[in-house]
Amino acid sequence: MGATFVQKVLARAAGRSEARVGEVLDVRPDRILSHDNTAAIIAKWRTLGQSRLPHPERLAITLDHAAPPPTVRHAQNHATIRAFVAEQGIRHFFEVGRGICHQVLSEEALVLPGDVILGADSHTVHFGWLGAFGAGVGRSEVAALWALGRIWLRVPPTIRFVLRGRLAPDVSAKDLALHIIGRFGADGGLYRAVEFGGDGLATLSLDDRMTLANMMAEFGVKNAYLPPDEHVFDWLAERLARREGISREAAYDRITARALYPDPTAEYEAVHVIRLDEVEPVVACPHTVDNVVPLSAVAGRRIHMAFLGTCTNGRLSDIATAAEIVRGKRIAPGVRFLVIPASSEVLQEALARGYIADLVAAGATIGTPGCGPCMGNHLGVLAPGEVCISSANRNFRGRMGTPEAEIYLASPAVVAASALAGVIARPSPEPVAVQQAAPSAHV
Ligand SMILES: CC(C)[C@H](C(=O)O)[C@@H](O)C(=O)O
Ligand code: SF4
């Protein structure tokens, strides 16, 4: 019998030739991620009697969740992390403004196909976009990982999604992810691995693949996996070559050498075929990500803020889409349109291509690359009674500040179109009529 991706990748990281589903393995990750929560991990690690990291090169730390720091407490937190980074000689450290951990580690080619990355962040499943095993773990686990370099992981069963066809032009990878979560439930993938396959996969851009893998955290999965192709290898090779000062060819060889693919005879818990051309624009309504309805069911709902950003949809293609929609127009009175690029690389490219100028001319506000108000830390939280349309991945009650606000999740195109219309809107050249009576939040 063949093996799934997760069986192969965990077996290799445990120094074994194979692994059965349900087996607990002693896994050695290639990379250990943490961010602003690193200070809490340092404290736990010290209580384990530790004072020197045995493998500082395996760590990667970003300052992104409250960056720049909004309070003295946050600033002190960052200062503690910087002191630790200097003390332990941690090379892979990314300052305020560099961007969100998942985006930055991808751009820096610090995670390669076939790698195992564990992070103190639930969206570490993101790295499935490039064919790595990424999983979130708790802060205590990270402290133990720093000390021991190993952790027990149970090999999960796998659900396979076979993608066929192509998404319609007004449908995005965000709609696809929400479609899956809405159909199978927010716990549909609990302690499961998901694998994507099928000829539809090749039609997804790299940004789309990142969005899809990232959103699988909201499906409850242990990890997500998309088989890496030459587009992924090329994207990484250029970056790895730059970072390591090696030739592109040498980087390419290193990247492809460890890529893993499931066997055609692998056993799956379930296989679902998704016809991409049947996926429609959707919105996740407050206050759960699986409260998914067709866009038309909530179109016309009055909004106060439109937020474009996060590790889910803060990339160049997302900003390009938004810029195209608002170019030469003005955002609706009474609406704030907040745009926060996922990284400094995204911001620089968006500046060079004129997208930021278009957005600012239309009345948008641009924030420092990072998480922004995604989890309610700073940079644009909501007031009681306010409604936000957001390109993020979570709409839990209280997520962006007050429990009395409502968050609707949608694609970047819908976020931008809604910023113009002042109501949840489908991107369209036609003017959108404001609905007088707002429909219930729980449509
Ligand atoms: C702060 C961090 C631990 C958290 C996570 O694990 O996902 C955050 O990134 C989030 O999106 O809620
Ligand atoms: S952007 Fe949001 S979801 Fe992503 S890591 Fe930051 S807080 Fe978490």
UniProtKB/TrEMBL annotation:
- Sorted alphabetically, which Gene3D superfamilies does this protein's record hold? Aconitase, domain 3
List the SUPFAM superfamilies hit by this protein, alphabetically: Aconitase iron-sulfur domain
Its Enzyme Commission number(s) read 4.2.1.33
According to the record, cofactor stoichiometry and binding are noted as: Binds 1 [4Fe-4S] cluster per subunit.
Residues recorded as binding [4Fe-4S] cluster, renumbered to this chain, are C311, C371, C374
The segment(s) forming the Aconitase/3-isopropylmalate dehydratase large subunit alpha/beta/alpha domain are: 22-422
> What top-level class of enzyme does the UniProt entry assign?
lyase
Tell me the route in metabolism or biology where this protein functions: Amino-acid biosynthesis; L-leucine biosynthesis; L-leucine from 3-methyl-2-oxobutanoate: step 2/4
Q: Cofactors per UniProt?
A: [4Fe-4S] cluster
Question: Which branch of life, at top level?
Answer: Bacteria
Q: Which GO terms describe its molecular function?
A: 3-isopropylmalate dehydratase activity; 4 iron, 4 sulfur cluster binding; metal ion binding
* GO terms, biological process: L-leucine biosynthetic process
Keywords from UniProt, A to Z, are: 4Fe-4S, Amino-acid biosynthesis, Branched-chain amino acid biosynthesis, Iron, Iron-sulfur, Leucine biosynthesis, Lyase, Metal-binding
Instruction: Name the catalysed reactions.
Output: (2R,3S)-3-isopropylmalate = (2S)-2-isopropylmalate
* PROSITE patterns reported for this sequence: ACONITASE_1, ACONITASE_2
Q: Which PANTHER family match?
A: HOMOACONITASE, MITOCHONDRIAL (PTHR43822:SF2), HOMOACONITASE, MITOCHONDRIAL-RELATED (PTHR43822)
> Which HAMAP family does the protein's record reference?
LeuC_type2
Record's family? Belongs to the aconitase/IPM isomerase family. LeuC type 2 subfamily.
This molecule's function is given as: Catalyzes the isomerization between 2-isopropylmalate and 3-isopropylmalate, via the formation of 2-isopropylmaleate.
Question: Quaternary state and partners of this protein?
Answer: Heterodimer of LeuC and LeuD.
Q: What is this protein called?
A: 3-isopropylmalate dehydratase large subunit
Organism per entry: Ardenticatena maritima
Q: What is the lineage of its organism?
A: Bacteria, Bacillati, Chloroflexota, Ardenticatenia, Ardenticatenales
What gene name is listed for this protein? Answer: leuC protein
